[in-house]
Every structure is written in C-alpha cells, then in structure tokens.
Specification:
The protein is mostly beta strands. It is about 0% helix and about 45% strand. The chain has a four-stranded antiparallel beta sheet, with no helix packed on it.
C-alpha cells in the first residue's frame, strides 16, 4: 500500500490560549540552547513556546513572558543569535532578547512606527510608516535609510536568494534593492499589500487586502494574479516545500508553486496576522491571542 505524503498546512490545531493579540512570530535558538517560537503583540506582550513539545490535539504550549514595555509590537525576527521585535507607540520601537525572556531596548532610539522586519543573515531591515527603512548588522545599532519615494506606508519585507530586498505596502507598492541604498519601484497600483516572500527558486509572492495576490519570477516584473480569496491576506511565508498565507477570518491557503492555492481547514475565525514555517511545523498567530499550528 502506497503512502501519500501530507504537507504541513492542511490540518491545524489550536494552542494554549493567550490573552493578547499577537502580531508577529519568530523561530530561533535561545541563549540556553533551547529552540523557541516567540510571539509578540499588543501591549508589549511576549509568549514563548519550546520546539519539540508534543503537539497532538493540544497544539502549541506557550508560556507568558513579562510585558516588555508600553509598546504594541507588530513583528518579530531572529538574527544575530537573538530575537528582535519591532512596533509602535513606544519611546523606542526596537527590542532584542538572547533568551526570549529578558528584553532590552536597542542602543539606537527609533520612534517611527515599524510594521515588519526581515534578515538575510548578515543584515536586518525594519520597515514602517511613511516609507521608513532602518538597517542593522547586530540588532542593537540601527542606521536610518532615506525614506522611499512617495513615502508609502510599508507593511512587508523579505530577502531573496537572487540578492533582492523586497518591500511592499500602501496602494500596491513594491520596491526592490540590492544594496539598501538604491531602490526601484516595481509595482504601484491596486490594494495595499501586507506581506511578501521569495522561495529558494526565486518565485516571489506578495499578498494583501481583498485577496490581492501579485507574483514575480525574477523580482523585477510583477503581475497581479486572479484573487483566490476575498479575505484580507496579512502575511505570507515559504519554506523548502510550499508557500502559505494567512489572514482575515482565519483564512489559510497553501501553494506548492505560488500560483495554485488550496484552502486549509481552520476551526478558528479570528484574524491571523503572522505565520512562520520551520523544519517541523507552521505556527500562525493573531487576534485575541489565537494561535494555531500544523506539523509536518
């Protein structure tokens, strides 16, 4: 009897409940050598969940970390052996932690509202309102990059194997750069884009409001695709096997090629804000503390 493989992302289970809306999630190794998922959100809340904890029917098991600051975190990433969270309404909108428990404000004060963050392994790029860009090579010291032309609010950022940084945002804005200095607008029409990612095969996908879906095979020419959902899509991620996007009303879709998308079953109708894919599972987080996961 043959066995048909099941990709992660088709079946989801809810994790332990959280009290606050979670807007970002990251995955990495803490200073105590444990591998953790870290979710961040409203009111400076931080939750951590250990990799390797049995999932079964109970989903992810999260522990609460003391609120970091009077700040709403919007996104998180792992780079330079530390977790980095960015947000808004704080005296400093960037915080880092090596152990996912003790968080420290970045040495460089950044008060601009930040909405997304990504790393290429040697540099981290944070993006935010009014076309704002900030880069760092250690997570603590940040350099201000000249705001992008037209100063659109930016909501998503990614880095591709082709060497492109890609940012997306307000009114369908897409811009790319290879050096973080010279940026070229590639697309600038339609609904606001909320997330962007690129596969190892250099398939680029951006998603956004009202199911907007824009794709590129080279990072230069972007083409709007037929929407596969009417829901606002808030984030998109990829791993070695497939793409996954999440959004409004608990919407989850997966795709093997970035073109054909399949809806996944999710018992929760809460809005999902972020998703991360790892070697073992996908984890998505969102409104009112909703968190769900799907194992490989």
């Amino acid at each position: 009897q043959s066995v048909v493989p099941r990709y992660a992302g088709s079946t989801w289970v809810a994790g332990t409940s959280a009290l606050s809306t979670m807007r970002g999630v990251a995955y990495g190794t803490a200073s105590d050598a444990t591998v953790n998922y870290v979710a961040v959100g409203a009111g400076g809340t931080v939750y951590k969940g250990l990799e390797g904890v049995s999932q079964g029917i109970t989903g992810m098991v999260w522990s609460t970390v003391a609120p970091v600051a009077n700040i709403n975190f919007n996104a998180a990433a792992y780079a330079f052996s530390k977790f980095i969270a960015v947000g808004d309404t704080g005296a400093n909108n960037i915080y880092t932690s090596a152990d996912a428990i003790t968080w420290t404000a970045a040495a460089t004060t950044v008060t601009t509202k930040l909405n997304a963050i990504a790393s290429n392994g040697t540099t981290v790029l944070a993006v935010g309102d009014l076309g704002s860009l900030f880069s760092s090579t250690d997570g603590s010291n940040w350099t201000t990059i000249a705001a992008l032309s037209g100063t659109p609010d930016l909501y998503g950022v990614s880095y591709s194997a082709a060497g492109y940084w890609i940012v997306v945002g307000q009114n369908g804005f897409i811009s790319t750069s290879t050096d973080l200095t010279t940026w070229t607008t590639r697309y600038n029409t339609g609904s606001t884009l909320r997330g962007v990612t690129a596969s190892s095969a250099n398939v680029f996908v951006a998603v956004g409001d009202s199911g907007t879906f824009v794709k590129s095979t080279d990072g230069v020419t972007w083409t709007a695709q037929t929407a596969f959902s009417a829901a606002n899509l808030n984030a998109v991620s990829t791993d070695s096997t497939q793409f996954i996007t999440v959004g409004q009303g608990g919407a989850i879709f997966t795709s093997l090629d970035g073109t054909t998308w399949v809806a996944s079953t999710n018992s929760s109708t809460s809005d999902l804000a972020a998703v991360v894919g790892t070697v073992s599972k996908y984890v998505a987080v969102g409104a009112a503390g909703v968190n769900i996961s799907s194992i490989h």
